[in-house]
């Protein structure tokens, strides 16, 4: 099989309502960028990949010349060009071709371990605690079994009060995770929340553990390896992170030093699917969980489902839903350009798509409408 063409589309899709993220509430976001890549072959198979940032030019100039006329099934040979350009959406598209060529959804090709994954509702928007609790109740009505909250208050007491308020609103119907987004500190133009030190992180982890929180995410900066390891060692609560770490070597170091109980890489940002499987396997060898960051779109969500469907150490799926800013329609179908949305079942799990490859089809009409 040979690659005959690579088509790249940069889509800029407006949010229904402008979004302010909890870690950066001083920045108003009006739209979500999606780069879509379609890789064509001489056997009529087309693979798709996507990411949540502008990678159109880098794919055109730094990847395409090295991939044309090459065999798309040789993932271990193609990885060098993809890694040099850090354009991992291309690896996702190549994996889609591999699955389609084999006639199997990728998770079955890779040793199917679970056919569905329990979702947790995850939304980054900044809103008052009462609105968070009300939103959590609506998620319970929709069938979600878990929600992730954001801890960005000045005091531990206020963060604890938020978790208590949500717990009172949802009772025992939901499990609760909490994200402190402390690795986002360097990107805040005008920080509105506090910078955590190890003591703040330890105190918070202790209080959250007593409230039955499942994990605390990004309690410190992503390169504070030693302090993260100390926290993970000393805390009874599971410590999670890694969504912004890049490259197989960073995850090797995070595992070797014991920085996290749960690794959360994002395959669209780092190592795609073919190389991310090695990181997941290394996490398993270190008795760590592997629960990837959300993947930025419907295609990224499908990629996470196929990856984790084949893993024994991946019990949760980050499911981006944050109405009215990010709904299933706007986030998966518009930004994610997939025809059939990936929805939770009655028990709050998302089934792994069963068609070959990633198992999703793109909507060419949406692509044509938003292509720049
Ligand atoms: Mg996070």
Overview of this structure, please?
The protein is of the alpha/beta class. The chain has two domains: 3-104 and 365-370, Enolase-like, N-terminal domain (Enolase-like, domain 1); 109-359, TIM Barrel (Alpha-Beta Barrel). Helices cover 37% and strands 21% of the residues. The strands form two sheets. Strands 4, 5, 6, 7, 8, 9, 10, 11 and 12 form a nine-stranded mixed β-sheet that branches. A three-stranded antiparallel β-sheet has the order 1-2-3. Strand 1 and strand 2 (24-41) form a beta hairpin. Helix 1 runs antiparallel to helix 2 and helix 6 packs parallel to helix 7 (198-210). The longest helix is centred in the middle third of the chain and has 15 residues, at 156-170. The chain is globular and about 60 Å long. Magnesium ion (MG) binds next to loops. Magnesium ion is lined by residues 179, 217-218, 243.
In short:
By secondary structure, the chain is α/β, with parallel strands linked by helices. It is built from 13 helices and twelve strands. The protein folds into two domains: 3-104 and 365-370, Enolase-like, N-terminal domain (Enolase-like, domain 1); 109-359, Alpha-Beta Barrel (TIM Barrel).
């Amino acid at each position: 099989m040979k690659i005959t063409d690579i088509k790249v589309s940069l889509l800029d899709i407006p949010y229904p309502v402008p979004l302010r993220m909890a870690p950066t509430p001083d920045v108003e976001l009006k739209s979500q960028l999606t780069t879509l890549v379609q890789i064509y072959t001489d056997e009529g198979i087309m693979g798709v990949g996507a990411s949540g940032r502008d990678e159109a030019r880098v794919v055109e100039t730094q990847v395409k010349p090295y991939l044309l006329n090459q065999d798309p099934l040789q993932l271990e040979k193609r990885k060098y060009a993809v890694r040099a350009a850090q354009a991992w959406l291309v690896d996702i598209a190549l994996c889609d071709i591999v699955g389609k060529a084999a006639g199997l959804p990728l998770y079955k090709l890779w040793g199917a371990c679970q056919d569905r994954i329990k979702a947790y509702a995850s939304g980054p928007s900044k809103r008052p605690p009462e609105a968070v609790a009300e939103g959590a109740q609506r998620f319970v009505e929709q069938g979600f079994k878990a929600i992730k909250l954001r801890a960005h208050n000045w005091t531990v007491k206020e963060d604890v009060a938020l978790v208590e308020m949500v717990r009172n609103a949802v009772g025992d119907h939901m499990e609760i995770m909490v994200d402190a987004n402390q690795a986002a500190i360097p990107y805040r133009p005008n920080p509105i929340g506090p910078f955590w030190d190890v003591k703040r992180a330890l105190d918070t982890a202790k209080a959250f553990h007593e409230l039955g929180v499942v994990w605390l995410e990004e309690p410190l900066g992503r390169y504070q390896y030693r302090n993260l390891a100390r926290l993970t060692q000393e805390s009874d609560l599971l410590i999670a992170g890694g969504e912004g770490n890049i490259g197989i070597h960073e995850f090797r170091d995070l595992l070797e030093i014991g920085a996290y109980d749960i690794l959360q890489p994002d395959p669209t940002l780092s190592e795609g699917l073919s190389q991310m499987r090695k990181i997941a396997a290394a996490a398993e060898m270190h008795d760590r969980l592997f629960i990837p960051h959300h993947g930025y779109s419907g295609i990224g969500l499908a990629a996470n489902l196929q990856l984790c469907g084949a893993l024994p150490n991946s019990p949760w799926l980050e499911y981006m839903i944050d109405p009215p800013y990010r709904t299933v329609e706007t986030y998966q179908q518009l930004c994610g350009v997939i025809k059939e949305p990936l929805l939770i079942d009655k028990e709050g799990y998302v089934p792994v798509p069963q068609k070959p490859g990633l198992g999703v089809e793109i909507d060419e009409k949406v692509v044509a409408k938003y292509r720049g």
